[in-house]
C-alpha cells in the first residue's frame, strides 16, 4: 500500500512539472503559477483528473487549453488516462497567482 502512495506522490510532482510547461497565451506565466490548477487527483490505476479554471469563462483558449493539459499529462509514461474538468467555482482572481507569477507580471 505504501508503494502506491509514494508512486502517486512522485507522479503528482511529475504532473505539476508538466503543467508548468503550459502557458496562458495572453500572460507570460505558466498555468500552474497563475493558479489555474485547483486540484490534481491520481488514483491507484494512474488515472489523473485535473480540476482547473480559466482566467475568464470566454477565455480565447477555453477550447484548446484543457485539451493541451490532457495531452501533455497523458504523454507521461506512468499516466494511464487523464481528464480535465473546468470549473468557475470559485472564479479565478489574481489572488490565486503565486508570488513568482505576481513578481513576473510586476504586481509586487
From TrEMBL:
Q: Which InterPro entries match?
A: Fe-S_Maturation_MIP18, FSCA_dom_sf, MIP18-like
Q: Which superkingdom, per the lineage?
A: Bacteria
MIP18 family-like domain location, by residue? 13-86
Quote the PANTHER family the UniProt record gives. FE-S PROTEIN MATURATION AUXILIARY FACTOR YITW
Query: What is this protein called in UniProt?
Result: FeS assembly SUF system protein
